[in-house]
Model the fold of this input.
Amino acid sequence: MAVLSELLEEVSYECVRGRLDREISDIVYDSRKVQAGCLFVCIPGARADGHQYAAAAVQAGASAILAEREVELPEGADVTVILADNTCYAMAFASAAYFGHPAKQMKIIGVTGTKGKTTTTYLVRSILEQAGRKVGLIGTIEIIIGDTHIHAENTTPQSYLVQKYFRMMADAGCDTVVMEVSSQGLMLHRTQGFVFDFGIFTNLEPDHIGANEHKDFADYLHCKSLLFRQCKVGIVNQDDAHWKEVTKDCTCQLETYGIDAEADLRATDIRFLNEGGSLGMAFTVKGLVEFPVKIASPGRFNVYNALTAIAICRHFGVEEEDIKRALATAKVKGRTEMVRVSDDFTLMIDYAHNAMALKSLLETLRAYHPHRLVCLFGCGGNRAKSRRYEMGEVSGNMADLTIITSDNPRMEEPQAIIDDIKTGIGKTAGKYVEICDRKEAIAYAIDHGEPGDIIVLAGKGHEDYQEINGVKYPMDERVLIQEILEERA
Done:
C-alpha cells in the first residue's frame, strides 16, 4: 500500500477531483486487472484507449484515475482523478515510487541499438557474474532474477513491470541489472523514473518503421538518442555512421569503442577461428585496456558485442582473466548458437527472421570459407509477403543450398508460405529443397551434411514453440536435434 500523494511526488499533475491522501493498493493499466483500491492509469494505445475504460475501472473498485483528459465516471463515485500531460511518463515515476525506487539500490546498464542488444546483455551478465556480482537481466528472450526465468512479452516491458522486476531483483540480492532498451520502450517512456548508470549504443539501421511504430528513420534515431539523456556514462560504437547524431544532445560522459575508428577501446589483429567445427573470433583489445581475446561466436558483429562488454566491465573493476574466461565460453540462446552434432561440419541456430538479418548472418558465415553454406528457414504467417520473397532471394543468392520449411504459419497454410519463399528464390540460380515439416527438414540437413559445411537453422532462434492456427505447440530446435540424433543412434 502507498499514499497517492507520495506516488505523485515526482509527477507534474493536477488533481481535478477527490483527495490525495488515499491509500493505493496497486497501479493497474489493464482494465481487466483492476482491483479494489488501485490507481487505474488510462493509457492511449494503438488498438484501445484506456480512457474509455475509466468508468468500468471505478465500478470494479479503482480508488483513483490517472488520465490525460476528462473521463466519464459513474454518478456519485468516490474516486480521485489526476490529470497529467502524458500518462505513460507519469506512470513510470509513480511505479518507481510504488516499488520504493529499487533502481537506486543497484547499478543499471541499458543497451540500445538495432542489432546486438540481446547478445551484449548476456555477455555483460556472464562476465560480471563470473567476477562475483549478482546480475539481473531484462530482455527480448527473458527476465532473469537469480534462478528464476520469466518469459518476456516485450523487449522493454511496460514501466510498471520494469520497476516490479527491479524490486524483485533488489530483494533477491542483485547488485546490477543489465537490460535491453528498445526504441519503442524509450518512445513510450517505459524507462523513465530512474537514471541508467551506463547506456550503450550498438548500431543503427532502418527498422521498426511503420504503423504503430516509428513514422520514419529520423523518429527512430531520435528515440534511440533518448537513452543518452537518461544515463550517467554513455558507451557508443564509433564505427556506426549515426553515432554523432545519436549522442548530439547527450547529457552524459561519453566513451567510444570500435574496430575501424580511433576509438577509446579498439579491436585489432582480428582473426576468424574454426576449431573442430566450432566457429569463433580472436582479436587484441587496445586503448583503455590491452589484452588478447577469444570469443566463442563468429563474425565481426560479435567482436563489437565483446568490445561493448569489455567497455562496461572495465568500470566494474573486473580482472582481465575473468573477462577473457567469460568471453571464451559465453553463449546466447538462439544467437549464432552452435549445437555440436558432428566433428565434420558446423550446425548453428540463429534468430535471423528477416532479409537484413539473414544477409548479415550469411555474409558472416561466408568469411569462414565453408565447403557449403546450407540455410534452412521458413517465414511466419500473417506477416508481409514481401519478407518471404526477400528472404528467399537472399538465401538463393548467398547459400549453396536452401532448405525451405515451416516457421510459425499462424493462420496461414504452411505450403502457401513456402510457395511465396520459392517465388523469391526463383529469381536466383540457388539450389533448394522444400520439406514442410521442420523436424524432417532439420533431419535432412544433418543427414546430408558434408565435411566442412556450415548449416544454419534460421528464424526460430530462442523460440521454443510453433504457432499453428492460433495455438502455440512446444517446439525447441535443440530438442528436435537431440531427438534426431537419438533416432539415428
